Automatic annotation (TrEMBL):
This is Transposase Tc5 C-terminal domain-containing protein. Residues 680-741 form the Transposase Tc5 C-terminal domain. SUPFAM superfamilies: AN1-like Zinc finger, Ribonuclease H-like. It comes from Caenorhabditis briggsae. The lineage of its organism: Eukaryota, Metazoa, Ecdysozoa, Nematoda, Chromadorea. InterPro entries: AN1-like_Znf, RNaseH-like_sf, Transposase_Tc5_C. It holds the Pfam family Transp_Tc5_C. It comes from the Eukaryota.
Length: 741
């Protein structure tokens, strides 16, 4: 029996049947046939529950409260279903599973809530920053998927429900692009602002290259070394270029770009420039041209397998017959890598994917060969799932491991060096000149190795001749390449002249005043020697100093047994802390605990003030003599060490460097900062006395230091406590193994 409609019920039905949006149907209420009635709030323009529900079969209004009245109504409901099929027998379960005639719209479709002006502005800025950071296309940022995401995030994190009207407020593609370009311009201005102070100092080097993946575009970067010897790299331009990209066109594009941000043409041409061999003529338009080493590494690797025409004429015909085997190895590796990458099922079963084949860089084929060789067991397990071309290539590589090993034996060091060179993030002076000497013509293990080594030695002089004084100087200062066997005496002299003159122009301007320019560990790599060298240059005896420096290089390293084939030679740093040691034992220790080599005692006294009279030898004003040389002279006593360990040769060069590195690193611990400051007080300087502190002896050799060595499986007695990891070590694991936590 139908319930009599009240005045309120008729009002709700009238609102639902009208064209307005004052009342709408909301979510289901206990059954798919019953919907809640939502009414619009006058204050917030949002929909809220009215407390009533509507039966979609008979249009009867029900109370939206708990109870069994809804199912009782559905049992006796006389409304007919507007569907092509007859209504099935009614029961509680059948009524609960029946779907309505039409799918009801979501509540967000009716919401009229909008973003405020401030919220819309924040959303626009957020989308623009996301596009700038990720490089996503503007069509994607303004597309429907991104707009739906913003609405979902707003509904999940805020109060209320945003719908179609709020979605329409989200900015479109053009607005996002405008804001993104504005942000990018601001970033570029900031980048040029950081770069501007170094332009007049001739410390800016431009790095340019024409696009390979994005065709006909010139990429521009600027690198410079700041006042703390940190290498900085800034992107400054991505310039469209014509198909006929001549050197003159490239120069005009570079200068126009720099002039657009306020540089003068003179400032632009005062920069040095780094580019590949195709842009070598840029050197006539800028202060100097530096040949890109990375390109040379790739070209050398390529010409080992595919010699230049003039070099091919110089090679034996038997060697030329073997070189195509190396090319076949690389091609097959790329085929296998491509087959795996194009097979989603194979990708899902691999622990990691091989390198993606790419023809823009020649060493890409070598990277594919390295990965395929390392993953060969996994690839063979799923080789049946690969394409015919991929299977054939993998079977060939698996049947000829001797060829794979031969190619890797010759070319893999070049790949290792190339990756290391491209990842450098500071001025280490270790990674400038390519490791050409790694290709050894004396290796005769396999015919292919001999053929590749012979072929690879031919283009050495060809590419080596393209380097200038920058490469000579950087290599000369490298601790790992001081032998300089590939350089003549004149080249070495030119290297010193170029490198030292360039750096001294601003090193000497900094002076030795620590208040004006504090020195850190990076400064010690160059400043220690160059500051000392400045007086000799002023006196005009630079050549004498230079020759002495060259001879010292050779004498210092004549006992080293490093060769290009040794694994130790390819490490970034042999003993990291040794390069921070000053060149002479006379060290001054600044108040912040940093060491620097200075012989200018009077200048230090004038700056800090002294309570004592200056001695002839300066011993009273040398903190290093007071706290280091006097207190730690026992380190030089080797009697006990020689008796206890016959096989340990402390007097050899390598072991001396290790021990110096260990002692120096422990003395540089932050825990000894107050002790380092006290050295100035003990030497008579008028500086504040630090609070109570512990000495190196108390920290390195505390009570209970003679315990068990912390190394696993070691039964030796410990003798020292590391100031960094605070663990106890025996002599073998601390000194001989060179502990460097």
């Amino acid at each position: 029996m139908n319930r009599k409609k009240t005045e309120a019920d008729r009002k709700f039905l009238k609102l639902l049947e009208s064209d307005g949006d004052e009342a709408v149907l909301g979510d289901e209420f206990k059954s798919e046939l019953v919907k809640q009635i939502m009414i619009e709030s006058v204050e917030s323009y949002e929909y809220c529950a009215s407390g009533r529900a509507l039966c979609t079969q008979c249009k009867t209004l029900l109370s939206a409260t708990d109870g069994g009245h809804v199912f009782r109504h559905l049992d006796r409901c006389t409304g007919k279903r507007a569907a092509s099929e007859p209504i099935p027998e009614t029961s509680d379960e059948s009524l609960r599973s029946v779907e309505p005639l039409a799918k009801q719209r979501k509540l967000t479709d009716f919401s009229k809530r909008q973003f405020t002006k401030e919220q819309t502005s924040k959303i626009t800025r957020a989308l623009a920053k996301h596009a700038l950071r990720t490089g996503k296309s503007f069509n994607y940022m303004g597309g429907d998927c991104m707009r739906e995401l913003v609405i979902d995030v707003a509904n999940a994190t805020g109060s209320g429900i945003f719908g179609k009207e709020a979605k329409a407020q989200i900015p479109h593609r053009q607005t996002i692009q405008t804001h993104t370009l504005r942000f990018s311009d601001e970033l570029i201005k900031r980048a040029f602002g950081e770069l501007k102070p170094y332009v007049g100092k001739q410390r800016v080097n431009l790095i340019v290259d024409h696009g390979k993946i994005v065709s006909n575009c010139l990429s521009m970067f600027a690198s410079y070394i700041d006042d703390t010897f940190k290498l900085r790299l800034l992107p400054i331009g991505f310039i469209p270029s014509t198909d006929s990209k001549t050197g003159a066109d490239t120069v005009d594009a570079i200068i126009d770009r720099l002039q657009s941000v306020g540089w003068s043409e003179e400032e632009a041409r005062a920069c040095s420039i780094t580019a590949d061999g195709a842009l070598a003529n840029l050197g006539t338009h800028f202060s100097s041209y530096i040949r890109c080493v990375s390109h040379s590494i790739h070209l050398l690797g390529e010409k080992v397998v595919d010699p230049l025409e003039k070099h091919a004429k110089m090679l034996d015909p038997e060697i030329m017959k073997l070189l195509p085997i190396a090319r076949e190895c690389l091609d097959n590796a790329q085929n296998v890598s491509s087959a795996i990458r194009n097979n989603f099922q194979a990708c899902s079963e691999m622990s990691r994917l091989p390198t993606l084949p790419n023809d823009t860089r020649w060493l890409n084929g070598l990277k594919c060969l390295v990965d395929v060789t390392e993953l060969s067991k996994e690839i063979l397990d799923l080789v049946s799932k690969l394409s015919l071309k991929g299977r054939t290539s993998m079977y060939w590589l698996n049947d000829h491991p001797e060829y794979d090993n031969a190619v890797l034996h010759i070319l893999k060091p070049l790949l290792t060096y190339s990756i290391d060179f491209q990842r450098q993030d500071e001025v280490t002076i270790h990674r400038v000149l390519p490791a050409y000497k790694i290709v050894d013509k004396d290796i005769v293990d396999l015919d292919l190795i001999e053929a590749m080594a012979t072929s690879g030695l031919k283009p050495l002089q060809h590419y080596y001749s393209q380097f200038g004084t920058h490469h000579y100087g950087a290599t000369l200062l490298s601790p790992r390449t001081k032998h300089m066997k590939n350089f003549t005496k004149e080249e070495r002299k030119r290297a010193l002249m170029s490198k030292f003159r360039r750096i001294l122009t601003y090193i000497l301007d900094l002076g030795v005043n620590p208040k004006r320019q504090p020195l850190d560990e990076e400064d010690l790599k160059l400043a220690a020697y160059l500051i000392d060298l400045g007086e000799s240059i002023d006196k005009g005896d630079f050549d004498i100093e230079m020759e002495q420096h060259l001879s010292n290089f050779e004498d210092d390293l004549q006992d080293l047994s490093w060769t290009p084939e040794d694994d130790e030679c390819h490490k970034i740093q042999m003993y990291p802390d040794v390069i921070h040691l000053p060149g002479k034992p006379s060290m001054f220790q600044f108040a912040n605990g940093e060491f620097v080599e200075l012989d200018k005692v009077k200048e230090a006294v004038a700056y800090f003030g002294s309570k004592t009279v200056l001695n002839n030898n300066g011993s009273k004003v040398r903190p290093s003599l007071e706290q280091v040389h006097t207190k730690f002279r026992f380190i030089r006593n080797r009697n006990h060490m020689d008796k206890l360990r016959d096989n340990y040769k402390f007097q050899t060069r390598d072991e001396t460097l290790k021990l110096l590195s260990l002692v120096w690193r422990q003395l540089c611990s932050p825990k000894l900062e107050k002790w380092a400051r006290y050295a100035w007080v003990a030497a008579g300087y008028d500086v504040p006395r630090p609070a109570s502190f512990e000495t190196p002896a108390q920290l390195l050799f505390p009570r209970g230091v003679a315990g068990d060595c912390t190394m696993h499986g070691c039964s030796s007695t410990s003798f020292v406590k590391c100031l960094y990891c605070e663990k106890l070590f025996c002599f073998e694991h601390f000194v001989i193994d060179h502990h460097n936590c």
